[in-house]
């Protein structure tokens, strides 16, 4: 059907005068007060303009089929690319352009938005095309309105059609407000002059006109309101609000700071738990952090709302919140990068561009400013050193990285010491610019030239991470509604709202990877929405969309197993390792001997180990019910102490030397069986039935092994008699494939390799994955 454009301004006109530029650009925005703009009009005195919020080009509340354009340069620059702050995909086969671009062959250009209901339009915001090279933007345009998309009225100033000044670069959004609100259903922007190709992105400001006849509208109003402070907070307002929450709920809150930003602002945190200020044995610690990028202001406000909500609901006796607060130590850090937020806040929610305030004052992206432990860890894994030489968890930070001048931001350092000083179990960082949850690894491995691909390492706890991500995405009101695509490209999540970061947009040195490799804490990223800094009027809606998801995700900290590792006297053992068979990622106990291991429902063989104690393995069952399964461990003193005594008797020299002569590489020490007391054989037997049978089986195995050792020794004697051999050698006995309980205590890691001066050999590479700390005597 033909669309008649009437009257279309056909002639390009120069801007009228400097005065107009001043009027439109400067005066309007400088005289804002309480949503009304007062401007001194040249001849008619004081005017006031109402300011409406964005209709939702950037937030995607405006759907693609509400947009129409006169022409399209190529599909990838279609009308759906006209959203404020939309990003080009940056790939070579760039299917997602950084703006709507018109066909240069056409004479008349316009883009049209159908608000679907009668709307009071008050202004438009325009922006050029996102592109690393080109500078394409619209520098002037007319605006037209219609109620039927056929009859169009071009906005005029009473004398002539009103030409608006547009952009003068490709990134900075420029706001133009109308002298008076215009009521219509359709709005058109008619570009008149531009630089480069005619490309633009935009946002439209408007308020729906209330229609008393329409029942539909009122029925769809959000009925449940939490009555929180739904405004944006600058630094001082945030401080004031957090203090007031802390004053309202002194019994369950503690207001503290992680440290100072580059410019000296505090990185504030709110602790919410039943006994704030201390870690309670058995109570897991949880964290939400936000504002790594200062312009991603939504996460900050969401966390401020969450604090208010938890405080108020706790006082009101909400049983769910009571349970959560009493059983969890919750830390909320709304603004990790307060300096950046300050910059973005000054420009306001719409005009800050995509990146203003993203970085710290001294130029760091905090989220990806953490020491890269991935490469260290993967390298060790490739060499078969995990977990025997390099632990599969708590990977140490290489010396000097944190102190090297200026490469790690002060904000990052504050976060690292905070992460190290609390036994966090689960956390999420709230970000913006997308609507999805990402799970680690965030980094992909280096380019593999031989296979011509980027290798992506799967995280050991992948299925658990996917569950955690889904627990948020699926309880968020709109996160899985991805049929319109993602914020900037096609939906990368396959409709689930979750994606592996390394597969999607890999980054090195991320908080999530660091947290997983260096601490016990599992950390994910939650991207709250396309609009990083939504208008204040969106905050209530955003809270409603996220509230359930925020609570559900927090409750996941009570999934899996938890417990305390103690010695026989009941003293807690800190720094003990708790490992789950089949998952090559351990956790360690905290200062009070408590540990948490997030796990999906299932049956697990769990082993606790500590230096100086015999390891102990037991079966722990994780059900589908909420609440972690209690799995305590009481460890016996290790036989190693007694072995040490025996060694001391022998002048601390190895008692018997066997070397793998066949390979000609390296020597290993071992102890002959008769020097190890018998009582050790029962140590590994799990409680409960089957103990006797096991004991008998172990006795049998032991005899077999002793026989084998004898044969070995015999062989050794033979070979030493060969004149050519200078060292004592022995043929290696093939390792038994039976995976039985080790016949005596595991060999303590450090000490084995103190004695063994040679690096691990090939035989170890093959069994590096079968994840066993226990050194069987047969292996040597
Ligand atoms: C659209 O309709 C409304 C109400 O009927 C009217 O006030 C407004 O002026 C119309 N707008 C245009 C552009 O015709
Ligand atoms: C206009 O576009 C041209 C070519 O794309 C570019 O070289 C030039 O810098 C742009 N001008 C401005 C003021 O951005
Ligand atoms: C704090 O706890 C005390 C005692 O447990 C109680 O009397 C008081 O009312 C509580 N205060 C608030 C604000 O809940
Ligand atoms: C770091 O840089 C500052 C100034 O650039 C300098 O004063 C300081 O000595 C440097 N510190 C180290 C450890 O290099
Ligand atoms: C914890 O144990 C590991 C070995 O399991 C050891 O390397 C580390 O130094 C210990 N840490 C502390 C704080 O004791
Ligand atoms: C600890 O030793 C006692 C006997 O000394 C034994 O009965 C018990 O099973 C052992 N427990 C563990 C966890 O090894
Ligand atoms: C090995 O040889 C030594 C002396 O060469 C001898 O004393 C010892 O009994 C032999 N051991 C065995 C097991 O034959």
From TrEMBL:
Subcellular location: Secreted
GO molecular function, one term: DNA-binding transcription repressor activity, RNA polymerase II-specific
SUPFAM superfamilies: Carboxypeptidase regulatory domain-like, Galactose-binding domain-like, Zn-dependent exopeptidases
UniProt region (Disordered), positions on chain: 671-693, 725-747
UniProt biased composition (Polar residues): 671-687
Domain F5/8 type C: 50-207
Biased amino acid composition, Low complexity: 725-742
Domain named Peptidase M14: residues: 231-557
CC terms in the record's Gene Ontology section: extracellular space
Domain of life of the native organism: Eukaryota
Primary location class: secreted
Keywords for the protein's UniProt record, in alphabetical order: Calmodulin-binding, DNA-binding, Glycoprotein, Repressor, Secreted, Signal, Transcription, Transcription regulation
GO biological process: peptide metabolic process; protein processing
Gene3D superfamilies given in the database record: Carboxypeptidase-like, regulatory domain, Galactose-binding domain-like, Zn peptidases
Protein family membership: Belongs to the peptidase M14 family.
Family annotation (PANTHER family): ADIPOCYTE ENHANCER-BINDING PROTEIN 1, PROTEASE M14 CARBOXYPEPTIDASE
Name of the molecule in the record: Adipocyte enhancer-binding protein 1
Organism per entry: Sinocyclocheilus anshuiensis
């Amino acid at each position: 059907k033909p669309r008649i454009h009437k009257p279309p301004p056909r002639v390009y006109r120069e801007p009228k005068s400097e005065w107009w530029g001043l009027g439109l650009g400067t005066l309007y925005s400088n005289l804002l007060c309480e949503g009304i703009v007062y401007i001194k009009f040249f001849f008619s005195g004081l005017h006031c303009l109402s300011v409406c919020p964005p209709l939702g080009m950037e937030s995607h509340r405006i759907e693609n089929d509400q947009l129409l354009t006169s022409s399209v340069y190529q599909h990838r620059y279609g009308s759906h690319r006209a959203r404020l702050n939309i990003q080009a995909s940056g790939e070579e086969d760039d299917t997602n352009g950084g703006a709507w671009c018109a066909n240069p062959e056409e004479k008349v250009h316009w883009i049209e938005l159908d608000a679907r209901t009668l709307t009071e339009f008050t202004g438009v915001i325009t922006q050029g095309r996102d592109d690393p090279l080109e500078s394409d933007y619209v520098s002037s345009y007319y605006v037209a309105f219609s109620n039927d998309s056929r009859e169009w009225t071009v906005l005029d100033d009473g004398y002539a059609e009103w030409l608006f000044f547009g952009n003068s670069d490709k990134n900075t959004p420029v706001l133009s407000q109308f002298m008076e609100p215009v009521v219509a259903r359709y709005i058109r922007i008619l570009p008149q002059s531009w630089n480069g190709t005619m490309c633009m992105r935009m946002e439209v400001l408007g308020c729906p006109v209330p229609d008393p006849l329409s029942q539909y509208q009122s029925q769809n109003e959000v009925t449940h309101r939490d009555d929180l402070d739904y405004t944006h907070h600058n630094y001082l307002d945030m401080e004031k609000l957090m203090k007031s929450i802390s004053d309202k709920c002194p019994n369950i809150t503690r207001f503290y700071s992680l440290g100072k930003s580059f410019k000296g602002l505090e990185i504030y945190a709110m602790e919410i738990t039943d006994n704030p200020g201390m870690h309670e044995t058995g109570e897991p610690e949880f964290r939400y952090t936000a504002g790594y990028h200062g312009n991603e202001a939504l996460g900050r406000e969401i966390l401020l709302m969450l604090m208010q909500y938890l405080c108020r609901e706790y006082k009101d006796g909400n049983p769910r919140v009571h349970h959560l607060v009493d059983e969890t130590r919750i830390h909320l850090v709304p603004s990790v990068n307060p300096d950046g937020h300050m910059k973005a806040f000054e420009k306001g929610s719409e005009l800050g561009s995509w990146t203003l305030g993203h970085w710290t004052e001294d130029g760091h992206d905090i989220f990806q400013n953490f020491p890269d432990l991935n490469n260290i860890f993967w390298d060790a894994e490739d060499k078969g050193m995990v977990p025997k030489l390099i632990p599969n968890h708590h990977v140490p930070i290489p010396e000097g990285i944190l102190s090297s001048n200026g490469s790690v931001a002060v904000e990052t350092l504050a976060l690292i010491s905070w992460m190290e000083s609390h036994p966090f179990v689960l956390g999420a960082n709230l970000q913006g610019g997308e609507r999805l949850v990402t799970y680690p690894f965030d980094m992909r491995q280096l380019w593999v030239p031989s296979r011509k691909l980027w290798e992506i390492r799967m995280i050991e706890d992948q299925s658990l991470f996917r569950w955690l991500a889904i627990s948020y995405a699926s309880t968020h009101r709109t996160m899985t509604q991805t049929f319109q695509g993602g914020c900037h490209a096609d939906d990368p999540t396959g409709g689930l709202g979750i994606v592996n970061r390394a597969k999607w947009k890999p980054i090195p040195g991320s908080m999530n990877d660091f947290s997983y490799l260096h601490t016990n804490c599992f950390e994910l990223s939650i991207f709250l929405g396309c609009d990083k800094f939504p208008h204040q009027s969106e905050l209530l809606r955003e809270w409603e969309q996220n509230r359930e998801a925020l609570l559900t995700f927090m409750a996941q900290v009570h999934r899996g197993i938890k417990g305390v590792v103690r010695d026989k006297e009941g003293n807690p053992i800190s720094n003990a390792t708790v490992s789950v068979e089949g998952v090559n990622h351990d956790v360690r106990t905290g200062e009070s001997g408590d540990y948490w291991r997030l796990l999906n429902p299932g049956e697990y063989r769990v082993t606790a180990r500590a230096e100086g104690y015999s390891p102990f393995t037991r079966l722990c069952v994780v059900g589908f019910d909420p609440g972690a399964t209690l799995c305590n461990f009481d460890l016996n003193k290790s036989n190693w102490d007694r072995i040490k005594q025996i060694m001391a008797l022998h002048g601390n020299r190895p008692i018997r030397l066997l070397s793998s002569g066949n390979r000609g590489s390296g020597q290993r020490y071992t102890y002959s069986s008769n020097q190890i007391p018998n009582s050790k054989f029962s140590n590994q037997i799990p409680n409960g039935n089957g103990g006797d049978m096991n004991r008998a089986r172990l006795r049998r195995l032991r005899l077999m092994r002793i026989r084998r050792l004898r044969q070995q020794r015999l062989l050794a004697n033979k070979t030493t008699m060969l004149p050519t051999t200078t060292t004592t050698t022995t043929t290696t006995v093939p390792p038994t494939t039976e995976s039985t309980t080790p016949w005596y205590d595991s060999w303590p890691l450090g000490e084995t390799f103190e004695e063994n001066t040679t690096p691990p050999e090939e035989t170890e590479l093959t069994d590096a994955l079968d994840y066993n700390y226990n050194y069987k005597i047969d292996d040597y």
